[in-house]
Amino acid sequence: MKNKYSIFSLFKNAFSHHENWEKAWKDPEPKKEYEAIIIGGGGHGLATAYYLAKKHNMKNIAVVEKGWIGGGNTGRNTTIIRSNYLWDASAGLYDHALKIWEGLSQELNYNIMFSQRGVMNLAHNLQDVRDLKRRTHANRLNGIDAVYLSTEEVKKFCPIINTSQDIRYPVLGGTLQRRAGTARHDAVAWGYARGADKMGVDIIQNCEVKGIKRNGDSVEGLETTKGFIKTKKIGVVAAGHSSVIANMAGLKLPLESKPLQALVSEPVKPIIDTVVMSNAVHAYVSQSDKGELVIGAGTDDYISYTQKGSHEIVEGTLKAILELYPIFSRMRMLRQWGGIVDICPDASPIISKTSIRGLYFNCGWGTGGFKATPGSGDLFAHTIANDEPHKLNASFNLNRFVSGDLVDEHGAAAVAH
Amino acid sequence: MSKNLRINSSKFIDQTNRISFIFNDKKYYGYKGDTLASALLANNIHLIGRSFKYHRPRGIMTAGSEEPNAIVQLHKNTSRTEPNVRATEIEIYEGLEASSQNCWPSVNFDIGGINNFFSPILPAGFYYKTFMWPANFWEKYEYFIRKSAGLGKSPTEPDPDIYEHRYIHCDVLIIGSGISGIMAAKTSAKNGLKTLLVEEKPYLGGTTIYQNSEYFKINNQTSGSWLEKEINEIKKLKNLEIKTRTSVAAYHGYNFLLAKENLTDHLPIEIREKKIRHRLLKIRAKKVVNATGSIERPLIFDNNDRPGIFISSAIKRYADLYGVACGEKNILFTNNDSAYETAISLIQKGINVKAIIDNRENVDSKLIYEAEKNNIKIFKGFTVVDTSGYKRIKKISIMQLSKDGQKVVGSKKNLHCDCLGVSGGWTPVVHLFTQSGGKLKFREEDSVFIPNEFPSNQISVGACNGDFFLDEILINVPKSLQKFLKIKNSEYDNIEVSSFINKSNRNIWLLPSDKTFGKTKPFVDYQNDATAKDIKLALREGFRSIEHVKRYTTTGMGTDQGKLGNMHALGIISETAGTKMGELGTTTFRPPYTPLTFGTIVGRNVGEYFDIFRKTPIHNWHVKHKAEFENVGQWKRAWYYPKENESMHEAVQRESKAARESAGILDASTLGKIDIQGTDASEFLNRVYTNAWSKLAVGKCRYGLMLNEDGMVYDDGVTTRLGENHYIMTTTTGGAANVMSKLEDYLQTEWPELDVYLTSVTDHFATVSVCGPNSKKIVSEVIPDLDLSDESFPHMSFKNAKIGKINCRVMRISFTGEHSYEINIQANFGKSVWEKCMDAGKEFNITPYGTETMHLLRAEKGFIIVGQDTDATMTPIDLQMDWIVSKKKYDFIGKRSLYRSDTIKEDRKQLVGLLTENPNEVLEEGSQIVSDINKSPIEMLGHVTSSYYSPNLNKSIALGVIRGGKKMMGQRLIIPMEKKNINVTVADPVFLDKENKRLNA
Amino acid sequence: MFLINCPYCGERDQSEFKAGGEAHIIRPKQPTELSDDEWAEYLFMRKNIKGIQFERWNHAHGCRKWFNIIRDTSNDEIKTVYKMGESPPKL
Fold first, then answer.
1. pTM above 0.95, yes or no
2. What are C's interface residues with A at a Cβ cutoff of 8 A?
3. Which residue ranges form the domains of chain C, and what is each CATH number?
4. Is the domain of B680 the same as that of B826?
5. Structural domain of residue B903, as residue ranges?
6. pLDDT tens per residue across span B434-453
7. pLDDT digit string (tens) for B713-756?
8. Strand A359-363 versus strand A234-236 pairing type
9. What is the total count of domains within chain B?
């Protein structure tokens, strides 16, 4: 039995100088065969394994990770969580996730610091106003808490925004989802890993997939840097590297992998108490518990797997930040980094079976996957276990690119693709 | 406390120029040349701030940008306030005001210090394990956590300073002006290469420039005076640009680097007005020489964080460069010879050095001998096991190390001191090198990571390449440069070097203690209060990757990004986990090297320069006539023209009525215009629009709809055939640039065989649109020679004309449904034509109208606006515009997509008109449409895309898209608003003049 | 930030260019004869290669010409450039 985390266990362990804490997860060598293997030890992959074990009673499963768990986009994103999406399918998906977020710390017995400090989306032109109102009405009818705010209400909710009507693109209004907010990204990966490990899932790090073995139309196993592992079900949750894995199985996906950058400032005392996003002026910002301003930049337009983007993207983002928050001009950028995001043509994800039996993909989250982590894991687990999608992810199939039934969420994506 | 520790004069400090400054509300004095740190030390101030987590008192540790502890808030409560400024970097100026951070009520008495007592229950990651009960209480805990976190305070007023960017292209960029950098600069510039030398400090010469020791000589001079001559020589070189106070922040691919040149931070505030504060240099260098030097390592032992504990080389720098003694009873603690250099420097200046604790057992060198000669007690094979002194170090405890260095043996000795200098060897500064994509290798002998493979045209020389010692530098640097710069003769042949240093070191990442490990606090990351204990806890809990440990313990995540302690963190992980350092690797060095001000990154692109304003040639007229403007893309478009106290609604109603009853005038200059010429121009249009173009007669206009390849409506506009092989296409205002790019893309890459030339002429023409029943009379007065009869100039046709001597193009096209003319004229005559029309229209009450009225008028006619009535999910069929989709044409962009299984569905969302039950109720654009509000979940059929009160129909009208709307004509639906439901009826989207009689009225 | 050697203008900063995705995807000459699957393949499916990729770039703030680049997407190293219509040079 694992240590249960609580203030009492902290006190208890203080007496032994914290030398008796157990491993949060083991570090096993792969077994010869698993019932299912998840490729990718990010939040989505670990959550998938967790729910496969918890809800579908699949215990003999493994997560294989090329590097270290949570080291990809999970550990690189700006941790915004919200569900105010336009289309019914998206709203269903993201709000399913949000509902899980609301009890996740307790469920995992791991404080993932889910903080419902609200997310505001700003409107800067008349079409923005129309679009945001449309989205707010749709959200309301879908049971998602969202309100439209006037410029004055925006200012009241976040006083440091420059709402002067004399700026280049004045704030004309905005939307607010109060249940939205942020969580601690690393903790999400670690919490799911600990939870999955507890139920017997093997989390295998430093294990890179080199090939997918097929027998006709079915999968047979994985070639990895730690040898061949047999399995009949493979769930791929490899984000920016999804196409690389797909190519191993002889598939092409409707994805492009592009650099997405983010940055933090030096830590300061609390100055912004919510998350503010602006599509038109192209900046979003929140403040971490540590005090750093967390700022998301945009994607570059070229394909790259380097986890580096171009400087002009960062410059453009900070330019927008200073337009909306002139008081931050003397703040300093402490760290900037990049991730590789896999982008679908309709800015919606794929949680789907493929033409190969036993091979499933969960990808295409673009710039906004973190917020869906628990829901994505839950629904992907359902899809793998039942070989059928759940009704909440039925729309996010691969066939939509053939039929034309796309779920175009460009308007809701944080960053214009 | 008011002791003066300025013990000797220094040529780097101007003692004739006394400067006053304020620290924690008290006035002190320093001299020009001082940093805040050196000036505080001269005043015997050691307690600077409190640490992040435990609020432990902290002082100054270093003399440079690696400083983790001595960070202050400048000019609190003013518009120039700045948090987290390193006291070791900021140069003092008259009026400098600084205060301690992260403490309350004061740095001397800080309530938060209680955290230190709670530290046993605050190990690494404690917050992941608690604050979960009761559920939903996290945000209440979080409130207090956030309040106690953070360091300084954000400014709360806009920045009064200005910033700028400068592009620099050079043959060779040299980063760092230590001895290696100076040699590189001379070699490069003397050989005809355009060279830029940048140095983060205000002076050149690095640590060598103040090296005044007999033990380090070049050509029989002290290395300091030799280097001074070299510097004087290079200052005269024409090819060389030297920038001090300039730090390289980022080294991107393709030798693109960013550097911050600091221009005013060292000047008194009152003379900074209107001066540029920082300049961001965007450097593209053909070759880069990294001469970034090295940082001295601390040592990791219990309570190694107290004020008064310094890096040994910092003590030397304070003494040699600033003439300041860091303490009166100094002890040094080292594992190599560097601390002896410090000791000898101090002794030369008459500063007491009591003892040197040396990890090494059997070691000897001239420096050690010299130290012993000066009555410094040397404890070989010893280690410090503890320190005491709350706000300043008072005492250290030392013990002998076991042979293997894993334990301490024998009895404990206590030594009193007021300053402890530590030296754990040197770490090459490889941050920029790795940012550029360079890979490191681990050198076992002295446990350092040094540059190995790298992608771009660069080289690392001197200490940053692992050559720490003077003799190595003078031999290796010139050789490497010669090869790298492809130069025949070295500038540094036949140089004599004498160096008496012993190069051995005894590296122990975590020094042993006599205490239970769990009871010690050996700090690895000083700012974030991460200890060796935290690192071991992380490993115990299964965090094995260096990145995991970093994130779990926050090691290396402070404002110093772990410049001091990261190597020890790696070392401790390596030892504990039994992994080799070389295999473990390092964490990623992310830009910037030192934190970079947002304002600096943004430069001039703030405020009015945030984004360009595109204005039409008639813009000033609109301003003069009190128009309100709307942003459309980068354009400023006149939105409406309120008269006196008119509301927007009133103005729009008036404008709309006037346009239909008599005459209206619109500035349509922002519409995109693309000139299309070539023998295949008609074929080209056939391929890009959904309808057919070949048969359009010269002089005629046609409306076109453009799709994306996925079949969704992309843009629309009227295109006119000016000649057999000549068209002018108009696009939407917002879509102009994208349409142009898309057309060029197809032309160049898919259809290079077509003889077609595209030119964007949007800005070349002004477009004045006159509409309404009296438009003909007005235009005939403005252009009297033009035959405006319906026979000669029917709707959807075009004529060349002249207004005076000026050519113009007149199109008879209409977006309002009224009889109307668009006069296109060379942009600089736009305003005068507009005014002519206004004059001519006076008698008809010609009324200027803006975009809002334009939208209303076209909605009365059911004309769509791409982007408002469409999103990226509407096909022409969905818009009930089947008539514009040619069935005969073999292909056009997007055609195939219209026949996919989903796009051919009959119940897609389709454009319809909507009428409210109450004709005075105007729907909200964006509101959703349902048929049954009792259904759960409620099913949304579509939404309202456009909605207005029509003064011409005296009722509310709206356009919307509804699933299966085509077949719902006359059906009643509901708009569920927050507080009420509105009943609507599905109607024909053409509300007015369905027969188009008004076009010829 | 790359330095891109436009075949028409010479070396210029990346900020002058726009990327246009995978190269040598030829628009079908007879789209109406394709199945929905085949059309989707052209429209949406991409190799998205990690490694040597042939791609399209446009000198958007320069000569506005489209051309091809061969670039290693795993380290962003540009191997060579060539004009539209030319067959890719051997590396």
1. yes
2. 1-2, 14-15, 18-19, 21-22, 36-37, 39-41, 43-50, 53, 55, 57, 73-76
3. 3-83 (3.30.2270.10)
4. yes
5. 862-1000
6. 999 999 999 999 999 999 99
7. 999 999 999 999 999 999 999 999 999 999 999 999 999 999 99
8. parallel
9. 5
